[in-house]
Amino acid sequence: MAYVAPEPKIFACRQSVELAQEIAKEYGAELGKMTFSTYSDGEFQPSFEESIRGARIFIIGSTHPGPEHLMEMLLMLDAAKRASARHITAVMPYFGWARQDRKDKPRVPIAAKMVANILETAGATRIITMDLHADQIQGFFERPVDHLFASTVFLPYVKSLGLDNLTIASPDMGGSKRAYAYSKYLNSDVVVCYKQRKKANVIEHMELIGDVRGKNVILVDDMVDTAGTLTKAADLMIEKGAISVRAIATHALLSGDAFERIEKSALKELITTDSIPLRQPSDKVRRLSCAKLFADVMHRVQDNVSISSKFLM
């Protein structure tokens, strides 16, 4: 008789409960039982309230700021390892600290590599994530990494807009590969913004490489933080004769004055996923669910089936 793997169990970090519930629903399962004890100084302790011995488990949690979100994932991984789970998959729709993926000046950390190390030490036997800030972060792990692309979520929506004279834009040189990948599937032109920074989150100068006159432009990026780059790029493109400017950003950090910048900018719409909870509602922000994408991949991991069909880019 062929061996049939037992059904996996799905658990949620507190910062991603809403998304985890949607993923579990798409998967066809219920979230596992967890409790969290919190001390008066803020220290917390997760506890699995059901047996996970010998089981494959998925722990869902984005590690967006602050640092307690990463700590919660680590504690849950450690608890699962000590409870004798057989396979422990960290499902991280947003992989935090990824912008620190190299030494860009002396005496700074490579935080993305450090996070990869501690996730594995804590007990993760597999990582599932989406739109890493840099593809090479996959190489920081010694365990399998399933790096999903949100293009599978965004492209159907973009096509449904039925935009004429479509042009894909990258808000910086580093994102040009992503922009070209989108343009390939949408059969569109590409333009690139060249920017110089004074310091992190502060742009000193921006120029446009390419022509946007008479075009409907869609800016493509992996994340939006303060929205300074996207809004400045959108305003510049309207000045250069673009008909409309929309933006796609997988992870909506939207810190500081980001919402105010978006509301005041020439951006017609910011299209993002629900990988991170939105701080506040906005008429200009449209969120598309990534739950089905993650649920499908989790099914394929459980059944040892290829996930390459989920890679549009």
Structure description:
GO terms for molecular function: ATP binding; kinase activity; magnesium ion binding; ribose phosphate diphosphokinase activity. This is ribose-phosphate diphosphokinase. It catalyses: D-ribose 5-phosphate + ATP = 5-phospho-alpha-D-ribose 1-diphosphate + AMP + H(+). The chain has 2 domains: 9-149 and 291-310, Rossmann fold (3-Layer(aba) Sandwich); 151-288, 3-Layer(aba) Sandwich (Rossmann fold), CATH 3.40.50.2020. Helices cover 29% and strands 27% of the residues. The chain contains 8 helices and 14 strands. It has helices at residues 17-27, 67-82, 111-122, 151-161, 176-186, 228-239, 258-264, 291-302; strands at residues 9-12, 34-38, 44-48, 56-60, 87-92, 126-130, 145-148, 166-170, 189-199, 202-209, 216-224, 244-252, 269-273, 285-288. The strands form 3 sheets. It has a 7-stranded mixed sheet, with helices on both faces. Strands 1-4-5-6-7 form a 5-stranded parallel sheet, with helices on both faces. The radius of gyration is 20 Å and the shape is globular. The two termini are 39 Å apart.
